[in-house]
UniProtKB/TrEMBL annotation:
<dbReference type="InterPro" id="IPR050611">
    <property type="entry name" value="ABCF"/>
</dbReference>
<feature type="domain" description="ABC transporter">
    <location>
        <begin position="7"/>
        <end position="223"/>
    </location>
</feature>
<keyword id="KW-0547">Nucleotide-binding</keyword>
<keyword id="KW-0175">Coiled coil</keyword>
<protein>
    <recommendedName>
        <fullName>ABC transporter domain-containing protein</fullName>
    </recommendedName>
</protein>
<keyword id="KW-0067">ATP-binding</keyword>
<dbReference type="GO" id="GO:0016887">
    <property type="term" value="F:ATP hydrolysis activity"/>
</dbReference>
<dbReference type="Pfam" id="PF00005">
    <property type="entry name" value="ABC_tran"/>
</dbReference>
<dbReference type="GO" id="GO:0005524">
    <property type="term" value="F:ATP binding"/>
</dbReference>
<dbReference type="InterPro" id="IPR027417">
    <property type="entry name" value="P-loop_NTPase"/>
</dbReference>
<keyword id="KW-0677">Repeat</keyword>
<dbReference type="InterPro" id="IPR003439">
    <property type="entry name" value="ABC_transporter-like_ATP-bd"/>
</dbReference>
<feature type="coiled-coil region">
    <location>
        <begin position="214"/>
        <end position="276"/>
    </location>
</feature>
<dbReference type="InterPro" id="IPR003593">
    <property type="entry name" value="AAA+_ATPase"/>
</dbReference>
Length: 487
């Protein structure tokens, strides 16, 4: 049974209305019970493959087949906006065509599986980002799917949450396909990789753990480059001979024609070398000029204790170049604190009104989804900069002219993250408020982002669940909401 193929893509081609190819004759198979990573650049079409598997979209050509009609459950990257106003019970009920009689019992079981406690009448939108990440997984699990699709499941999870998820996935006996940029997480349980090439729009299947596959792809690229170099040398030599013999008469001219045909065949055999994942360019977040005195004051903060908010003393004052790391377990109120600070909706949290705030929201709620990416960046252009500088900055974040023309809603989550950083690079803020700034970001980009943040001369308030990322940034103080709530 373990060897049975449960899912197969056979020469599947898919494109959007603008005839932009996403998949081109993609073929791969997934065996029952296997743990597979779906790998590829931001915007390559990984989420599109999930949509095709779920049957939400149909291929232009080719065939997607399954064995014994397996059930499919998906944990999306982010909570759908229409679900934010539901209670937990109503949210889980929406997973079924008819509400099961034992729904509460099933909710309790999947909530235990994701290591989360919350009352049934809790509003989904009141949960923290980390709690919502667990709820998204529980929503998929409550359907008891034969194929579990996970899209960036570690986003917003603290270390305890990630460890619990890993333990669960290792013990899970059914088929799992995961999209994630968390390389260490993937390496712990992946048995194989489906690689989606953003340039050829084709897929390749690799067996082995994540790091081994990444190394194998790198070695293959090197071999392809060497093979091309050898063929290029042969082609140049042949073309010189063709030119020489073509000017001769009789048999020499026939020989030239034969060699020309052979040369064309050699050119066809040139390997289409994979343009492997690019990294973003080094960038700088320039500081707001003439910034003096107090920038932020945190007198009191709201923390969640036993699912109820309480107000506690914080007594933090921040000036230029000061950095504050906000920590605590999922659900304690870290993101709520940052949102309230930016919005100015909570007494005891104040930002100097003269300070320009650069806010990276973990759910990109501060990005206008209806506007194009170009219009979003245009609104944050520093004085004196024009279209050329905007496009140059965007290109540094792998945002091409084609991407800039799209509405934010049409971008992948990874592209939204890079757009958010491009905004920060253009806006010249005095204060950076960063809520999980590594969410959805390819691990290759993270050292470059950490360097830019670390070199920023203004004030920084940050929440991050990635210790290896935080370790690359100098932080002065820590505000541990968990400790504050226990005092």
């Amino acid at each position: 049974m373990a060897e049975e193929v449960i899912l197969r893509f056979d020469e599947v081609t898919f494109e959007y209305l603008a005839k932009k190819p996403v998949l081109k004759e993609a073929s791969f198979s997934v065996r029952r019970g296997s743990k597979i990573t779906l790998m590829g650049q931001n915007g390559a079409g990984k989420s599109t493959i999930f949509s095709l598997i779920k049957g939400e979209t149909a291929p232009k050509s080719g065939k997607i087949s399954t064995t014994n009609n397996p059930s499919i459950g998906a944990a999306n990257q982010t909570m759908a906006r229409e679900h934010l106003t539901l209670t937990l019970e109503d949210y889980f009920a929406s997973a079924f065509k008819e509400k099961p009689a034992n729904l509460r019992s099933r909710i309790s079981k999947v909530m235990e599986a994701v290591n989360l406690e919350a009352p049934f009448d809790r509003i989904v939108g009141e949960l923290s980002g980390g709690q919502q990440a667990r709820i998204l997984l529980a929503y998929a699990l409550i359907q008891d799917p034969d194929i579990l699709l996970l899209d960036e499941p570690t986003n917003n999870l603290d270390k305890e949450g990630i460890d619990h998820l890993l333990s669960f996935l290792i013990m899970y006996e059914k088929t799992v396909i995961v999209i994630s940029h968390d390389a260490d997480f993937l390496n712990c349980f992946t048995e194989g990789v489906i690689y989606l090439d953003v340039f050829t729009h084709q897929t390749e299947m690799y067996v082995g753990d994540y790091y081994s596959v990444v190394e194998e792809i790198s070695r293959r690229v090197e071999r392809e480059i060497k093979k091309n170099a050898q063929l290029e040398k042969k082609i140049i030599d042949r073309k010189e001979k063709v030119n020489f013999f073509a000017h001769k008469g009789g048999k020499m001219r026939k020989l030239a024609q034969k060699m020309k045909e052979e040369t064309e065949e050699l050119e066809e055999n040139m390997v289409d070398v994979r343009r492997e994942d690019k990294t973003i360019r080094d960038f700088e977040i320039k500081e707001q000029e003439d910034l003096v005195g107090e920038i932020v004051r945190l007198d009191k903060v709201r923390v969640i204790k036993k699912h109820e908010p309480i107000l506690v003393e914080a007594n933090k004052v921040m000036t230029r170049r000061t950095r504050l790391l906000v920590t605590g377990p999922n659900g304690i109120g870290k993101s709520t604190l940052l949102r309230a600070l930016v919005a100015g909706t909570q007494e005891g949290l104040t930002i100097n009104p003269k300070v320009k705030v650069g806010y990276y929201s973990q759910d990109f709620a501060n990005l206008p989804f209806e506007k194009t990416a170009y219009k979003v960046l245009e609104a944050d252009l520093m004085d004196g900069l024009g279209e050329q500088e905007l496009r140059s900055t965007a290109a540094g974040f792998l945002l091409t002219g084609e991407v800039l023309a799209l509405p934010v809603a049409a971008l992948s989550e990874g592209q939204k993250g890079l757009l958010a950083f491009a905004r920060l690079a253009l806006m010249k803020p005095g204060l950076l408020i960063l809520d999980e700034p590594t969410n959805h970001i390819n691990f290759r980009h993270i050292p470059i982002i950490a360097k830019a943040i670390n070199e920023f001369e203004g004030a920084i308030i940050m929440v991050s669940h990635m210790p290896e990322f935080v370790s690359q940034i100098r932080m002065d103080e820590e505000l541990d909401l968990g400790k504050l709530s226990s005092n």
